[in-house]
Predict the structure of DNA-binding transcriptional regulator, GntR family.
Amino acid sequence: MAVKHDPLSNIEVHGPIPAHLARSVIEETLRNAILDGRLPCGIAIRQQALAVLFGVSRMPVREALRQLEAQGLLQVVQYKGAVVAPLIEDNSSHAYEIRLLLEAQALRQSVPLLSEDDFNIASGYIEALEAETDFSKIGTLNRLFHQTLYCKAPNKKLLGLIETGLVEEERFLRFNLEKMNLGKLCQDDHQALLRHAKAKDVEACIAQLELHLQRGIQAITHFLDSQKAKQP
């Protein structure tokens, strides 16, 4: 009889965790394990097993799982509990429509306040994206570039919602970018966004963002359709 693999066996915990840090440590550890694939889609995450693994009560575990659910990395499924969410839903176009609304508002708030240091950081991410060949890192660099343009927005709730969408995209790209046959990603859209931001032209930034997100949804939709066509 085959021994069922325990997905939590891929997670290492080093030493006892201070009580006041338990929730954040558990959240960050599980988040990294989901993003790098150690906890794959569809795997159920049991509270009691996590409490034993981290040597804590179930309270910080529950709090960490709620945070990960809010970030779209976990879903609560009847009879299974918390389950690692799919890489992307079939309604990805709806998610991108929401992202445009949120990120456009962040640009309105942030762009007028961005400094030369912020522009240099954003430029550095573009250079890194041009040079990067590790597909697992490209999604992360893409997220960091966009977050740099939004970083001065004073509405932290807005930034939190935006991060959820960017993390979802990062996770999808990490596992599917190579299979999407996009080759070396062109950074023209990012360069244009940065150029408009430097000019403090908010409306041009938003127009460029809309075009950029539309390209993204077209690529993802085409990929998902091609994957469905291969299914028997």
